[in-house]
């Protein structure tokens, strides 16, 4: 009897527990329906409905002539769902598919048979077949056996993404940039566009289906940016720099070419050396690397002294024996024994350190702040403010600095102790070519929406005047003579004119493997009398055993660039008076006409004729002409009187 009561008691407890549990369930259901219904409904909707991002097409990046620098193209990854294919279709199409994949992707047919079988055995529903295919390859692979059956019967899965292509490849890679670097990063606001959104509903097997034919928000394609870069000049600058870096086994180098009157940067090449001795676009040294410029800074010192009227170009400076001591340090000229007593202008041409240290020190030793203030006034202590990120900060010492010493001023005179980027240096040289007017360097011409201009940046930005027109004229003459008879005489040519200044700066101070290392540079413009382009070449840490002076290492790069641009650029002259008579022109034409009329089937004597006239006459005879030089012809490979032969080549030279 007692045991029956215990059993009954337990049954009551169990029944009570079940009832209580049921009550709790009912309470929770009511609570969910009434109190938390909206919350869970929203969560359910989120699982069933989802907003998918539709990426906007990124705008194109062009050079100044609308040649593509960067564009967006679709790229495809191909995957295989090995389970969705029936056994019959898998057996039937496996070998034909493997054969086609082998032909397209290059691996043996047996490889694809094995990996596809393994994927099916492992029940792999996402096997990677190929990555990064172009559109034409995607269309082709989609038609292969088995894959042509589609996603459910053939297991074909394609994933599209948009990638950025750069038609120039590695040329100008750091200038074009990617991510937040270069032109891509600088003008990302215009290029990126606005992504769209499309609402989709989740259906069976994890698939998502659009709930309507329209997007919630349509994607807006990015705008196109037309840069100032000229791919022809960029190519010239790149290869001229690369050739010299390889010859001198230098660590890195940079070249910038800028249009004088507009400030448009036409080329910006930056190459750094790998451990294997190859070169690639490593960093944007032109914008980023702030370093001691060496003797190219003598232009700034000269302009400051002329503007302050503490010297004149005709003043005489005694370079003594080529060495001058300031406190415990000695300034030396590269020319052993010194230059004797020379004018200030000649000191610039031969790049005398002793002369510059003397007249700058003597002029400003009692008030060094006046010299520094003049440099500040000329804008040398300010960044250019380019849109491209990473511009180096210039540094001009000030007498209030804790590390200002008695030797700081004389060393500043020839470019030591100061710090400036190659582009900042070029901007100053360009100002001198512009009669002292500083034009802001720029990399953008316009922003377009297809054929419509949205923003126009073609107007030059005038920043300030670095000096008077008179001072600019004086130093331009010095730079012209530097090339003709000074430190850069090795690059002088009668064919076209150049003006500039060499620079050789010690860097590392004994830190290199074989002692001290150098930075070789050349900055200037061309043509000398009517500047159209300014250019700077900086080559860091060339092999000392091969050469390290600016005129030997950097100067020839400048000349190569100038020469190729000069040849490719037609000279346009405006004639004010159409009726004017030029006796020399008439005489040259009469000589040209006489030769052209007389010789029809035999080689004429073209010696003494201008190069272009000689080319015209010879080509009209059917000869293939190879021209060396641009002046009056001095030599011809086929002598006068010989009969012209079909497709015959003739070499004519003005050198």
UniProtKB/TrEMBL annotation:
Residues forming the PASTA domain are 597-655
Keyword terms, alphabetized = Membrane, Transmembrane, Transmembrane helix
Q: What name does this protein carry?
A: Transpeptidase family protein
Compartments where located: Membrane
PANTHER family, alphabetically? Answer: PEPTIDOGLYCAN D,D-TRANSPEPTIDASE, PEPTIDOGLYCAN D,D-TRANSPEPTIDASE FTSI
TM spans, by residue? 7-27
- Known Pfam families for this protein? PASTA (PF03793), PBP_dimer (PF03717), Transpeptidase (PF00905)
Name the source organism. Answer: Mesonia aestuariivivens
């Amino acid at each position: 009897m007692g045991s029956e009561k215990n059993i009954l008691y337990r049954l009551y407890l169990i029944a009570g527990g079940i009832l209580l549990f049921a009550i709790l369930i009912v309470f929770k259901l009511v609570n969910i329906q009434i109190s938390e219904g909206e919350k869970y409904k929203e969560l359910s909707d989120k699982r069933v409905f989802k907003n998918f991002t539709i990426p906007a097409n990124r705008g194109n990046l062009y050079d100044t002539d609308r040649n593509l620098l960067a564009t967006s193209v679709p790229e495809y990854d191909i995957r295989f769902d090995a389970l969705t294919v029936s056994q019959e279709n898998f057996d039937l199409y496996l070998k034909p598919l493997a054969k086609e994949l082998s032909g397209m992707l290059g691996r043996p047919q047996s490889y694809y048979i094995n990996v596809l079988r393994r994927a099916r055995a492992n029940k792999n529903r996402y096997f990677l077949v190929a990555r990064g295919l172009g559109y034409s390859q995607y269309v082709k692979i989609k038609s292969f056996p088995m894959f042509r059956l589609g996603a459910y019967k053939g297991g074909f899965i394609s994933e599209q993404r948009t990638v950025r292509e750069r038609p120039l490849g590695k040329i100008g890679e750091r200038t074009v940039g990617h991510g937040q670097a270069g032109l891509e990063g600088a003008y990302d606001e215009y290029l990126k566009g606005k992504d769209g959104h499309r609402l989709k509903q989740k259906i069976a097997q994890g698939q998502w289906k659009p709930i309507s034919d329209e997007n919630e928000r349509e994607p807006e394609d990015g705008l196109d940016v037309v840069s100032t870069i000229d791919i022809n000049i960029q190519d010239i600058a790149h290869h001229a720099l690369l050739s010299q870096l390889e010859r001198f086994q230098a660590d890195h180098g940079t070249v910038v070419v800028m249009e004088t009157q507009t400030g448009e940067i036409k080329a910006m090449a930056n190459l750094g050396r790998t451990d294997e001795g190859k070169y690639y676009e490593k960093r944007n040294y032109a914008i980023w690397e702030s370093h001691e410029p060496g003797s190219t800074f003598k232009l700034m010192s000269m302009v400051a002294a002329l503007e302050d009227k503490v010297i004149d170009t005709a003043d005489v400076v005694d370079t003594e024996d080529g060495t001058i001591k300031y406190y415990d340090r000695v300034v030396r000229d590269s020319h052993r024994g010194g230059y004797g007593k020379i004018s200030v202008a000649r000191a610039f041409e031969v790049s005398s350190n002793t002369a510059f240290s003397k007249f700058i020190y003597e002029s400003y030793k009692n008030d060094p702040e006046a010299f520094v203030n003049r440099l500040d006034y000329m804008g040398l202590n300010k960044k250019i403010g380019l849109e491209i990120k990473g511009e180096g900060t210039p540094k001009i010492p000030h007498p209030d600095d804790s590390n200002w010493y008695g030797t700081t001023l004389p060393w500043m005179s020839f470019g030591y102790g100061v710090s400036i980027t190659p582009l900042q240096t070029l901007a100053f040289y360009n100002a001198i070519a512009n009669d002292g007017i500083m034009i802001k360097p720029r990399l953008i011409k316009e922003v377009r929406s297809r054929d419509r201009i949205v923003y126009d940046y073609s107007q030059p930005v005038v920043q300030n005047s670095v000096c008077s027109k008179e001072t600019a004229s004086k130093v331009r003459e010095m730079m012209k003579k530097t090339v003709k008879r000074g430190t850069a005489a090795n690059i002088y040519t009668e064919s076209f004119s150049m003006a500039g200044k060499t620079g050789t700066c010690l860097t590392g101070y004994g830190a290199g493997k074989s002692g001290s290392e150098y930075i070789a540079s050349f900055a200037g413009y061309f043509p000398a009398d009517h500047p159209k382009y300014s250019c700077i070449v900086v080559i860091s840490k060339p092999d000392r055993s091969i050469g390290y002076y600016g005129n030997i290492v950097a100067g020839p790069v400048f000349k190569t660039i100038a020469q190729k641009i000069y040849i490719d650029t037609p000279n346009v002259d405006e004639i004010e008076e159409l009726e004017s008579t030029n006796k020399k022109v008439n005489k040259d034409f009469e000589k040209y006409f006489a030769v052209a009329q007389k010789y029809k089937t035999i080689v004429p004597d073209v010696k003494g004729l201008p190069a272009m006239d000689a080319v015209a006459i010879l080509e009209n005879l059917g000869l293939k002409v190879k021209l060396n030089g641009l002046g009056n012809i001095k030599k011809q490979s086929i002598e006068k009187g010989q009969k012209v032969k079909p497709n015959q080549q003739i070499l004519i030279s003005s050198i």
